[in-house]
# Entry
Amino acid sequence: MGRTYKQLSLDDRCEIARLSANGGSVGQIAAALDRPPSTISRELRRNRGRQVGYKPSYAQQQTRARRWKGSRLERDASLRREVLAGLSRGWSPEQVAGRLARERGRRVISYESIYRFIYAQITRTTDFTWRRYLPRGKSKRGHRGKRGGSPASFIEGRVSLAERPAEVADRKVPGHWEADLMMFSKYRQAILAVHERTSRLLLAVPIERKFAAGIASHLVRLFKAVPEALR
# Structure
């Protein structure tokens, strides 16, 4: 029987980067990972930059982008136009999915798929104008103080973003994350999103309560699925 093909994981790519940086040949790397040499050769050819060499986080991001091309909203231009038309009217993904289902008498697409599509565009292109399609305009972002300013200004021990190390600001070192909690007052729900600065990897999970303990448990679960190289 032939060998069953298995996609390279981020851990595999980190090992490829380590072995390649130490002078390992394609054959040696393939043997270490128990993969065909053609798989390693193709991986390096696709994702090795002229100046920075092979970066596992970039390779993982490119793989996700190529895989996303098979999503329904990417393949079905007509459905994509309908969904974007609804979002442009200010409808939420839930409203767009519900309206399409009522018009056609069956479920056409889930609102989760629409959310994933929007987040994928942000992650792939780093075009944050896609955020306008998320119902954030009605979100609760915290009450303003009477003298102006955000409550974040009065958090004890808070460190300003301007004071973060240069390695974080220039995105050269993986493992630095940003988190955002989006509150949707109309639906009494929230979405916790975390974004890794180097790989642009974005993870999100819906939550029902914004208590610190609940958010912390969601963060723990999210990061359990993240390879150590990105933690």
Summary: Residues 213 and 219 are 10 Å apart (CA to CA). The beta strands are 48-49, 53-54, 177-184, 189-196, 202-207. The chain has three domains: 10-56, 69-134, 162-231.
